[in-house]
Write a structure and sequence with these properties.
two-stranded antiparallel ribbon; five-stranded mixed sheet
Amino acid sequence: MKKTWFLVVFLIIGVSVTYYLQIPEEGMLPVINPTDLEPEMVDPDVLIDRKGYGHTIGDFSFLDQNGQRISNEDIDDKVFVAEYFFTTCGSICPIMNEEMTRVHEMYKSQEDFRILSFTVHPEVDTVAQMKRYSEKYNAGPKWHFLTGDKSKLYELARKSFFVLKPAEAKNLGDVGSDFIHTNNFVLVDRTRRIRGYYDGTRTASVDSLMHDIGRLLEEE
C-alpha cells in the first residue's frame, strides 16, 4: 500500500513539474525607441537618452479638466497610458474612451498609475469643456484630460509619443497634417519609456493593454 501511494504521489509531482516547465515565460515588454519606428518618423531633434534608457517622453505641462497643472513631474515613477482625442469627435473618440473607461475601472485604485488624454483641438477643448466631457466617463483623479498650447500638444504627440505611424500599429492620422486623428493608445513605463502601442477601438487590443499595464506595475 505504501509503495502504491508513493507511486501516485511521484506521478502527480512529475506531471505537475512537466506542465509548469512547458509554460513559456512572458519576459519583459520591449522598449520602443525611434529606431524601431518608420524612418520618416525619426526627427533629429527628438529627445534621446534623458536618463540613459534610450528614447523617453519629453517634458510637458498642461491643464487638466479641473484646472490643475499636470506636468511630467506628476507622472515620473508612474506607469501611464496616453491617448490623443477631441471632445466633439463623433467617430473613433467615443469608442476609444469607452474602452479607456475599462482601463480606468481596472486600475483606478493603483497609486502609481495614470491616464493622460490629450486633446488635439484645444481651440474648442477648454478646461470647462474637458470637465463636462470627463464627467461622461466618470473619470477619477488619476485620469487627466489635458489641454493647452496646440503646438506643444502636437510636438509631444509627434516627437515623443509617435502617435502617428508607429510600427505595427494602424492609425487614422497623417504625419503632414495640421490635425491629428489617431486610434493609438501608448503605454509608458515609470522611466517614461514607450513599451507598447494598442488600438483603442478594438476590445481585444485594449485587453492586451490592461494585461501589460499589470506587468509594468510589477516590473522593478
